[in-house]
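Input set for joint prediction.
Command: fold jointly, output tokens.
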Amino acid sequence: MSEIVEKFTRRVPHWRPRVTPVRLDDASPEQHEALSVTPSNTRVSDYVLVLAHDVESLKVRSPLFNAIMYDKGGLSRAEREVGAIAASMVNRCIYCAAVHATRHAELEKSTATTDAIFEKGEDAKLAPRDQAIFDFALRLSRAPAEATVEDLERLREAGLDATEILDLVLSTALFGWANRLMHVLGDPVRPDA
Amino acid sequence: MSVWETTAVRASGISMASEAASAVRAREQVLLNSQAAEDAVLRPRDPGAYAHDIRAALAARIARLNGETELARFFMADAEDSDAAGLADPAGTGHGGLPPVVVAFMDRVAMSPREIRAEDIEALKTAGVADSDIVRLCELNAFLAYEIRLIAGLRLLREKAA
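tokens >
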């Protein structure tokens, strides 16, 4: 047996699917092709094998995911991660929050921001630019209509230009998508020692 | 298709001449790939248990739940005269032939995904929904969460730039 992780953490849990993943041996040529373009080429994760049930979506989603999180220019990679983390907190995707908090800490070479986020949750107090980014992402994640022109004004005042704001919208929205797969289709677990 | 014809950019009302257009141009490929994702969830070659009209009506329903009436009307073009049309009204009782548990699941994943538990997936299985169709329902729902937020963000950029 293993224990379901209920609290936000940077320590990445295992992901236990709630539906049966596609078996590689049974995969169609189209599924094989889609599985080879996922971010983790070395070992195909259960998560990706679950998504392979809808291979047409998987095929377009992986390159889109990489472009939104890693394309050059615009918002920094760490700041895109803040959007991803905010969405994951609103949607309670413990697994996504752990992965992207870890990535944020690696990019920043500091755990200060994600420590603050995990300590106070949605009420976390951050440096001004990160705060504007985090607050906007929280509101857009809760309900699209909650994000207002005033929130956008705060992003402008914090120094973000139009492309950086669009990058934040994209990374936040992308995790509205990813959370609805990862959190809905599986449980974050810690195997018993 | 050009980036200006994608669902998200059209729904946002951003015009080629506006200040926000520079951001659209900078992320043209991402926005085109987003449109490809819409095609994959709304009009897949292999739709599983959910034909294109059911998907269109569910998309319209989720757009309405988010207050996106225009977008809902746009999605309904593919479900207008279909038995699934009743699904598009979240306040109505129409289930378009789907088990009510499926419709309730879609509403909750759209509006309060944080509350979804393992039991919700078990309930779908008990109602006879195949694992592959559970994933299809989630992908449709999850993509719409993305697209509706993308539209909301683009619209704010347009309003702020004006």
